[in-house]
Write a structure and sequence with these properties.
Adenylosuccinate Synthetase, Chain A, domain 1, binds guanosine-5'-diphosphate, binds 6-O-phosphoryl inosine monophosphate, binds magnesium ion, four-stranded mixed β-sheet
Length: about 425
């Protein structure tokens, strides 16, 4: 049985975690293929709210095995904290249920210090993500598989922290972390995490061949992709569906469905252009005040998210770059009570109409959205469980999003809880 990929169609925080949790009810493996603890995926199950950063969201289902693939960068301290946190919330997070790729790179304190010192105006999550991937590409990173030999691992960590510290001192004049102390700290983490380390490429391959169903949960979204996002205002990993194969170490032919998770409006955290951003009261209304757990404040950093109308140009781009087969439209309930809704259907750039998402952030920064207005609705839709339960204006909005994307909307969510969804069979699969 094949892979279902779940990817973000915007700048992250589309609700990938909750859609993964929903689809995990019918899956056997839930895998993360990119990013690190810059991700913050919130899943609400009844009264319990789970905030996941590294552990795949499907793990909340007891029969699922979680996989952290080779494409992920792992802060071992944060992974242990998350394992302990979930265990305290009653979940089994033993090595039988969670597999960490031997090829996943580890985040070191020097990466975090370099991220804080050097990521300038990008507004990163300061989790050391960029420097860890940079060290991976430079072929000097430390990988999870090295934790099997504790003494050799501690020496490698010592050497890597020493050299990273030199850069920190020379470039930024900062006092680096003590290599000896970090090596001792990481020795302890390795003792704890080594039992989780597996050849996850083989594990997933064997599972696929045995007919098991795999969910590949993306972190971030297409507009933050290192190659295809709004560079340089991006993250440092492959966030698009193409990253599933390399990030998990399996062939692309296993991917059958590619579900694009699309929030009913647009958000962005950190710097970079965002054509449909609303800086006034309408943006405040979409963001919420922070009283509700789903209000637009970052799961990882708590920063207020920039909010705006749904960007159909970016959505069509997400369809193309990911090869989406269907859409999951989230947070539709947040639009209730807005008199008029707007959807960007094209951009205006220096007097010309652009239909396609531009290739540079500089051009995007000059793009003005061309909007189409749709009527809003006032009803509370959080109890809708079938499309027919929705007001006509809400159905019209969904249809228009579907038309713009050229794809069926197969999942609609109307609240953060597991059952607050309208699920329809995908015509594409
Ligand atoms: P992710 O990073 O893509 O997994 O998304 P986040 O978890 O960072 O952000 C999505 C937020 O919206 C979380 O707080 C979810 O609980 C919440 N959420 C998801 N779907 C819905 C929905 O349909 N309605 C409402 N009100 N909240 C939702
Ligand atoms: P999830 O998986 C939203 C943003 C940061 C910053 C840029 C680079 O929850 O959707 P990084 O720390 O990755 O080097 O920061 O990317 N960013 C996210 N924004 N959701 C995320 O993850 C993000 N992960 C990174 O705000 O602009
Ligand atoms: Mg998030």
């Amino acid at each position: 049985m094949p892979i279902t990929a779940i990817v973000g169609t915007q700048w992250g925080d589309e609700g990938k975690g909750r859609i993964t949790d929903l689809l995990a009810a019918d899956a056997d493996i839930s895998a993360r293929f990119n990013g690190g603890d810059n991700a913050g995926h919130t899943v609400t199950v009844g009264q319990a709210i789970f905030r996941l950063h590294l552990i795949p969201s499907g793990l909340l289902h007891p029969a699922i095995v979680g996989v952290i693939g080779a494409g992920v960068v792992v802060n071992p301290r944060r992974l242990i904290e998350e394992i302990d946190q979930l265990a305290a919330q009653g979940l089994d997070v033993s090595p039988a249920r969670l597999k960490l790729s031997a090829a996943a790179h580890l985040i070191l304190p020097t990466h975090i210090a370099l991220d804080r010192a050097g990521s300038g105006g990008l507004g990163t999550t300061q989790r050391g993500i960029g420097p860890a991937y940079a060290e991976k590409a430079a072929r000097s990173g430390v990988r999870a598989g090295e934790m099997a030999d504790l003494e050799a691992f501690a020496e490698r960590v010592h050497a890597a922290v020493y050299s990273g510290g030199q850069v920190l001192r020379q470039l930024y004049g900062q006092e680096p972390p003590n290599p000896q102390a970090v090596a001792a700290e990481y020795y302890g983490y390795a003792q704890r995490l080594a039992p989780y380390v597996t050849d996850t490429s083989l594990y997933v391959y064997d599972a696929l061949r045995a007919g098991r169903r795999v969910l590949a949960e993306g972190a971030q979204g297409v507009l933050l992709d290192l190659d295809h996002g709004t560079y340089p205002f991006v993250t440092s990993s492959t966030t698009v569906a193409g990253g599933v194969a390399s990030g998990l170490g399996v062939g692309p032919q296993w991917i059958e469905r590619v579900v694009g998770v699309c929030k009913a409006f647009q958000t962005r955290v950190g710097a970079g252009p965002m054509p449909t951003e609303l800086t006034g009261p309408e943006g405040d209304r979409l963001r919420g005040t922070g009283e509700q757990p789903w209000d637009e404040f970052g799961t990882t950093t708590g920063r207020p998210r920039r909010c705006g109308w749904l960007d159909g140009v970016a959505l069509r781009y997400a369809v193309r770059v990911n090869g989406l087969t269907e859409l999951a439209l989230t947070k539709l309930d947040v639009l209730s009570g807005l008199g008029r809704l707007r959807l960007a259907v094209a951009y205006e750039y220096r007097g010309e109409r652009l239909e396609n998402f531009p290739t540079t952030a500089a051009v995007l920064a000059e793009c003005r959205p061309i909007y189409e207005d749709l009527p809003g609705w006032s009803e509370d839709i959080s109890r809708a469980r079938r499309r027919a339960d929705l007001p006509a204006a809400a159905r019209r909005y969904i249809d228009r999003v579907s038309e713009i994307a050229g794809l069926p909307v197969t999942i609609i969510s109307v609240g953060p809880e597991r059952q607050q969804t309208i699920v329809e069979t995908s015509k594409a699969c």
